[in-house]
Amino acid sequence: MFKLFKKDLILFLHDQRSVILTFFLPVILITLFAFAYGSIGSYNGRSEPVRLLVADLDQTSSSKEIIHKIDSLDDIIVVVSDSINSRELVVKGDYVCALIIYKGFQDSLEYGDSTPIELIYDRSREMEIGILQQNLISTIMSSTGETIVHNSIEEYLQDQFPDIDKSTRENILKTAIKKDDNKLSIKWTSIVGEKNDTKLGLIQAVAGTAILMLLFSVAGVGTSILEEKENGTINRLLYSPLKRSAILYSKMLFAFFISVLQLTAMFLFAWLVLNMDMNVNMPGLILMIIATSFAVSSLGIFLASIAKTRQQAQNLSTIIILVMSAIGGSMIPLFIMPAILQKIALLSVNYWGIQGFYDLFWRVLPLKEILPKILILMSIGVVMTLASIQLFKKRITKLQ
Amino acid sequence: MITVRSVSKSYGNIEAVKNVSFSIAKGEIFGILGPNGAGKSTIVNILNTLIKPDKGDVIIDGVNINNDGKTVKLIMGVVPQEIALYEELTAHENLMFWGGLYDIPKPELKAKVKETLGIVDLVNRKDDRIKTFSGGMKRRINIACSLLHNPRILVLDEPTVGVDPQNRHHIFEVIERLNREGMTIIYTTHYMEEAERFCDKIAIIDTGQIVAQGTLKELKHISDIKDLVTIKLADAEKETIARIASENPLFRFDSTSSTFEVECGNIGKDTPIIINQIQKSGGVIERINTRGTNLESIYLKLTGKELRD
Hints:
The structure holds 2 protein chains of 2 kinds.
Chain A: H1 2-14, H2 16-36, E1 50-56, H3 61-71, E2 76-81, H4 83-92, E3 97-101, H5 105-111, E4 117-121, H6 126-160, H7 166-176, H8 200-231, H9 233-239, H10 244-272, H11 282-306, H12 310-328, H13 339-344, H14 349-361, H15 367-396
Parallel strand pairs in A: 1-2, 1-3
Antiparallel strand pairs in A: 3-4
Helix pairs in contact in A: 1-10, 2-8, 2-10, 8-10, 8-11, 8-12, 8-14, 10-11, 10-15, 11-12, 11-14, 11-15, 12-14, 14-15
Chain B: E1 2-11, E2 14-24, E3 29-33, H1 40-47, E4 55-60, E5 63-64, H2 69-75, E6 76-79, H3 91-100, H4 106-119, H5 135-144, E7 153-157, H6 165-180, E8 184-189, H7 192-198, E9 201-206, E10 209-214, H8 216-223, E11 227-233, H9 238-247, E12 252-254, E13 259-264, H10 267-280, E14 285-291, H11 295-303
Parallel strand pairs in B: 3-8, 3-9, 6-7, 7-8
Antiparallel strand pairs in B: 1-2, 1-4, 4-5, 9-10, 11-13, 11-14, 12-13
Helix pairs in contact in B: 3-4, 5-6, 8-11
């Protein structure tokens, strides 16, 4: 069996395309996804600030104050422009959106009318708009709201208590309109992922992409069984004193070995290049790599066993891997998927693998908490292996 | 060396091999001749224990294949019809791998690989990958891979399909050399001239059945086919033709081609006698054609079909 394994390893190393697909392509994809998910980059581990065009047609102290407040936000960089130019730049796609403060803004605050303020934006760039939404709206609302309330109370005091002295009036106003230091606010506290420096997006990128690419690699190993059947080398192996089962077991061993190697290489890359925190439960990580590799490699061999030809196996593998990876969270993080898809995801190897790595790297759970996922992955591997052995005997080594 | 008795094998309703029996002596080259799909490969796979026959017995070098398949695999070397090699490996790597499956000690295997590369005349290409080889060279390495464990019986399943004449000649030389060294060879082919050239005995197989077997001479006898001598006369006058026909009742005249056709047992011996008789009867010969009995004609006679590439 080890002779067959060695032969497969030499064949693999001779085939540069396989080596590139197994190691370099996943590295490139992991890096791309890691950037896409916003875990690494120059802006303190966060996404780049959004540049917001602002056209101040009012040119009053109120409009200037609001622009100053927006500019002080971390996620927004204000670029001052005029209204015509702003529209043009958004239409051309140079900017995501523009805030136009029309003439009469300050007056509207004083009289409590609706504020002439407009945000024009490009609907196709909703992600960036989303980032703006929270900060921009809260800033504008608090500023405008404060002014309106201030003016209303002052007007009321003037009408009802015209003789009140200036200092008492200011004290009343100060108490009524709570400033930043004592205004009502919700404290936001994250309780997950605080114990390590690794960002969730990076874990998603590494685990998701690694499992996706792993599936493609082992599907290739599985397909090589059919290739050997088609070019007659399986029959020739059967002419030798080798046991029939040794042919399958050697392929499984090779697929498992490549899987372990690939996953390990991906985590090493993430650690050395992407600064992924590897200060995790090491036995847990080793077991997760072994269990994921076993489940994925068994699935790859199983896919080859159910196909009749190499072409059929390639097509079938591509479809199944892409569908499973899409629903299992390799391509899109599971938490942004609808609830029904999150339930269907339980059927995929990707789900259990990715969740296991989340448990290790993000939730920093102890081994006993990760064990159920490891057992599920091992069970998938056992079932797929048993099915493959039956199908292999029936289909692959059948001579007529 | 090999005894096959009443062997049959069916796949569902299809009878791939029907009641086949033959025996092969040590050092003999035994040809199995038949068109594609006749059952040749099924017989090869039964001999090599890969397919279990539904009925019958196969004894190879005293071993019943049903009892000890592993020993049979060590006795036999099989050259498959396909070029069953790893294209990405070199010739040397392929030979080391295939030989390694027989648990030959490494130093011994290395020496055997070197020797075998010499037999197939590819020592200078040993470090080249198989994918860079021509079809004929691949066929030669395909044979070499089956010789590494010193088999006593070599089965060659259509070893010259798609091979150019030069490489075909190389392969023939290898087979003849191995046979001279005492190896028993089973050679399946659908090329008549190959069976005629090598085989001590030939089995003609059609739709899973052996329709005839024996030496070429025995097959001629079984098929009752005669050699043919055709003579065209220079002066085809009616009186001369009638005189020749009356004096030689076995000479048949074909009026459309104006030739005499004479069936005989042996062209070499009988042609001078026929010429002499024609001349004695007053005939002047313009042209003589001869057609010896070959496997093509025997096959046609026995199966009613032509064997084509």
